[in-house]
TrEMBL record, chains A, B:
This is Butyryl-CoA dehydrogenase. Residues 163-266 form the Acyl-CoA oxidase/dehydrogenase middle domain. The keyword Amino-acid biosynthesis does not apply. Residues 40-157 form the Acyl-CoA dehydrogenase/oxidase N-terminal domain. Keywords: FAD, Flavoprotein, Oxidoreductase. InterPro entries: Acyl-CoA_dh-like_C_dom (IPR025878), Acyl-CoA_Oxase/DH_mid-dom (IPR006091), Acyl-CoA_Oxase/DH_mid-dom_sf (IPR046373), AcylCo_DH-like_C (IPR036250), AcylCo_DH/oxidase_C (IPR009075), AcylCoA_DH/ox_N (IPR013786), AcylCoA_DH/ox_N_sf (IPR037069), AcylCoA_DH/oxidase_NM_dom_sf (IPR009100). Its cofactor is FAD. GO terms for molecular function: flavin adenine dinucleotide binding; oxidoreductase activity, acting on the CH-CH group of donors. Belongs to the acyl-CoA dehydrogenase family. The keyword Oxidoreductase applies.
Length: 601, 601
């Protein structure tokens, strides 16, 4: 495959095959129909469709953002055309079981497939990925009838799906949602309320939209324990699967964003009387699973969605890096310090060390982020298909502790990669003649949605590392130690030793933070904790990559491996030292923020 | 004055009067007509005009960016209206001498005036500030006739000015400009060439535009030593000052930017035959000063422009911080950890420690940045008006070493403040319903223009700290030591001691980097050096502020001082430790970047 500015097929090959050995998954029953050839074929197809149908309208979808005409959401026509090609290629259902029309692809390969589309056009790719997440949730928690009714049309791309959690007054605080679901005699519910920030909440791309809606059944417990989950289709579905009456789900407005504009983002009214199915008030909804357990189901989906957000952030950073690299290799300007003869020809700017610094930093972020996302997806496969219950449980626990990092680290550092990409291009990067400014704007959403950066920090330090007496963190430490053990006696021993020391410090700091059992004090600096652990985790994955790299090879192959090793060295020498002051701050139990009165700001 | 979301009048009062004692400048002859009252009156007027005429169209100028209709650049009409009010209030000429129609304001007060307009509307404020910089350059280096012809119309806001340095093929590399200036028999020149990235390069706001253009006179030395500076008016000016024939300066295109959109940014053709003054080819230009010394004159202006860019970056960060603070105090969501009773009312989000962390960090960046900018402007006043030549020279040397920091540090950290502001607002911050996303986009220009971040690093480590056997750095160290000396025996002794240690390490690292006289190796990590020194300088200015803060006061005044002290502590505990790994990296003489082959990326 020729070199692409969207994503690096060579790097994916390295990560999937040379490092993660994904071919071994075909030994598992679930993936037995697959082979390295089928994995590679679907990846190549993804790259082709992403290149030919997604990337070309990325700018157009940004310039002509979704708008409402006669009550309908209008998108640039290329979106529907691209999604038709995507669905026809079976991409929506790539990870679904075969009996539901899916390709039954491993999660790790599926995530690599996603990365191609996210890097090419994050806005357009959101529609099918939300749909796939919706379908996955129904497969896991819906009744057989619900699955039969809603999943195949989504798998075929005829219907799309959404997740409707947030509300105008609630934001990150789902305990405060007020959408009500009144039980009806026929077992269905009638919903009333308003949902905010609903991506893909309304459009004309498909004939139906399946909303998964969080709401409270009157009389239930207060707070998050009283939240239930409902299927609320835009158009009601008859027993034969045919579309019937319009449900009372009405677009109340579009959000106009800084970036990520291709994905329409909506305010939706449920049961406000815009339509009254059967002549009665309320939007018709169907309970998923049991009442009051809605948040549990949603979080099951959300963990995968969070890894997906991390990979999306990585993909946006990755394509930014590749565009900057391409520019730096072709744009000539200035001369080397050693020979500042003004009569000499200018050199490509990649020859200037400061430009290489920016590119190498970006490379270490985006390849590190991709390794993190794929590693987590590989754990999803282990969690599902490992041979022993102990191995599945181990994968589950490790995934629990890694998920907030898989979401937040790329959202921070691959955005930083796009910031560096803008800087490499300079004034050109600040104009809309080049795509990097859009990647930068698009990527800025990722530290916000699917749980903000600060929410991920509370999740990691407040839940994940304390659960089961710290078993998750202990398992992470053990897993890292297995890698550093392999590094002993190699040229990477020093990186391994640094990681060992940092992991030990994280363990000590975690204990110290929780020593007095005061969650307010323990969690006051949770974000610093998240960022420190995140950097150590990515440092470990750089060691993993370095150890998977043969110290040989010539030409392009040799340069590829040399680049991997150099990026690992960069992360070791330039990035990991940043963790030192963070852990030192945490170790002091710093109260600066906690003791700051709002009146002082 | 009521609290504003544009800038803090109380903070400016503290910085200008309680800390920098600007009233003492009125003891100098140049500023003898002024008093605290006149300073405060002009600041109050600036705040009023910024609030009433600049801020209201900040979003409109972003949404309706400059565009060309029938060959003319069209802006939203509010821009011209605001600039009329601005000019009529004498703001363009605020720092010019009285005999040229100016207010003869000290640079430090003038910069505070600028900050109000930059925070309110960076795009509109650029027109008069470029004009003022242009006029200042002519006052310093033009002939009396040139000054008489061009400065008063600019001071009155009837004409605007530009700086035309860059070219499409040259970017940061001015040595490679190819615009030619052919001397004519009458002493004028004829220019031909194309200039890129020219802010305010064309518009209908004024009846004339005075371009200051860098060009090469044939036969001069190669590279930067062959660059001369020319006045090239859009419309030629008769001896009586009346406008005459159109000069051959033609708009070739507009750049469409991510932000900063209100300032039109142009590609300009000089002498390409769009007009032919007197029927002869070439744009008519008038030499400023001597041939081949153009870059020296331009850099004289550019140093002040760089401080101005830093203050602009600070202003954008400051208003972002204030908007986020306002949102955090009024938006309710969630509950304190200590009392997670779901039935309790939600609290303002400023009550959540992670939100306070973001606000306190932003506060430490924007107030630190403002202190840095004003300190440098105060040095400009010293350089101009101090009583002894030794004091003027001292101010000049200190300013030389601080200028790259005054430009780059706020461009990095006050952009970070806007990033935090977006994060505090969450999803809302990502929408165009709130202004913070625009501040974030606008501010992203600042690490690029007027010398990129990397260029500033080369300036600091490659020129400023090595000039005169390191006299500039020694003077900076001495100046910081004078502050840490005052901190001894106070509650701030530990911050002083930390700064002493860091300054010593910077001195050692600087020596080590240059020890073998290999500029390529010394400068390979110049950006890390710039960032480390910048953080230490701002840490020092936080100590300065803390020492100027009475540990007393009640109510709002007490809270103001407590906030200053807390921000100083934050910078001490959270920010200064980041410098440790940077200096450690520099001390190893790290070659990771230098040894990276472009083929490995």
């Amino acid at each position: 495959m020729p070199a692409s500015s969207i994503l690096s097929a060579r790097d994916l090959e390295f990560l999937l095959h040379e490092w993660l050995q994904v071919e071994t998954l075909t030994e598992r029953e679930r993936y037995a129909e697959h082979s390295r050839e089928t994995f590679d074929a679907v990846l190549e197809l993804a790259a082709e469709i992403a290149t030919d149908h997604f990337a070309p309208h990325n700018r157009a979808a940004d310039e002509h953002e979704p708008h409402v005409v006669d009550g309908k959401v209008v998108l640039v026509p290329e979106v529907a055309a691209a999604l038709r090609v995507f669905a026809d290629a079976g991409m929506t259902a790539a990870a679904l079981p075969e009996e539901l029309g899916g390709l039954q692809l491993p999660a790790v390969v599926n995530l690599a497939v996603h990365a191609w589309f996210q890097a090419a056009n994050i806005g357009t790719s959101a529609y099918p990925f939300l749909t796939a997440a919706n379908a996955n949730l129904l497969v896991a928690h819906g009744t057989p009838e619900q699955v039969r009714t809603y999943v195949p049309p989504m798998a075929e791309g005829r219907w799309f799906g959404t997740m409707a959690l947030s509300e105008p007054q609630a934001g990150s605080s789902l305990a405060d949602i007020t959408t009500r679901a009144e039980p009806q005699d026929d077992g269905s519910y009638r919903l009333t309320g308003t949902k905010m920030w609903i991506s893909a909440g309304d459009h004309e791309l498909t004939e139906n939209i399946v909303h998964l809606v969080l709401a409270k059944v009157p009389g239930g417990p207060a707070g998050v324990k009283g939240i239930s989950l409902f299927i609320v289709p835009k158009v009601l579905v008859g027993e034969d699967g045919a579309l019937g009456e319009r449900n009372d789900v009405v677009l109340a407005g579009l959000n106009h964003k800084m970036g990520y504009r291709g994905t329409t983002n909506t305010l939706l009214n449920f049961g406000e009387g815009g339509h009254t199915p059967g002549g009665r008030p309320g939007a018709v909804g169907f309970l998923v699973g049991e009442e009051h357990r809605g948040l549990t189901y949603m979080f099951h989906m959300m963990n995968e969605a969070r890894i997906g957000v991390g990979v999306g952030a990585t993909a946006l950073g990755y394509t930014g890096y590749l565009h900057a690299l391409d520019y730096a290799r072709t744009r000539t300007q200035g001369r080397p310090l050693a020979g500042k003869d003004p009569a000499a020809a200018p050199v490509p700017i990649v020859e200037h060390p400061d430009v290489r610094r920016m590119l190498l930093a970006a490379k270490s972020y985006v390849e590190g982020g991709l390794a993190l996302g794929l590693y987590c997806a590989r754990l999803v496969d282990e969690e599902r298909t490992a041979g022993s219950a102990a191995d599945r449980d181990r994968a589950h626990r490790l995934l629990e502790v890694l998920t907030p990092i898989a979401k937040s680290w790329p959202s921070q550092w691959c955005l930083a990669a796009d910031d560096l990409a803008v800087q490499v291009l300079g004034g050109a990067g600040y104009t809309r003649d080049f795509p990097v400014e859009q990647f930068y704007r698009d990527n800025r959403l990722n530290p916000i949605h699917e749980g903000t950066h600060g929410i991920q920090a509370l999740d990691l330090l407040g839940r994940k590392v304390v659960a089961d007496d710290g078993a998750g963190l202990a398992l992470l430490a053990e897993t890292i130690a297995a890698t550093t053990q392999r590094a002993r006696g190699t040229e990477w021993a020093d990186l391994g030793a640094t990681l060992d020391e940092l992991v030990a410090r994280i363990g000590a700091v975690t204990g110290a933070l929780w020593a007095d059992g005061d969650p307010e004090r323990a969690l006051a600096n949770a974000t610093v904790y998240l960022e420190a652990v995140g950097h150590v985790v990515v440092g470990w994955l750089w060691l993993e990559q370095a150890l998977a790299t043969p110290d040989q090879g010539e030409g392009r192959e040799g340069a590829f491996y040399a680049g991997k090793r150099q990026a690992a060295r960069f992360f070791q020498r330039w990035e990991l030292p940043k963790v030192g002051p963070q852990l030192a701050l945490l170790a002091t139990g710093d109260r600066t923020v906690l003791d700051t009165s709002p009146a002082w700001l």
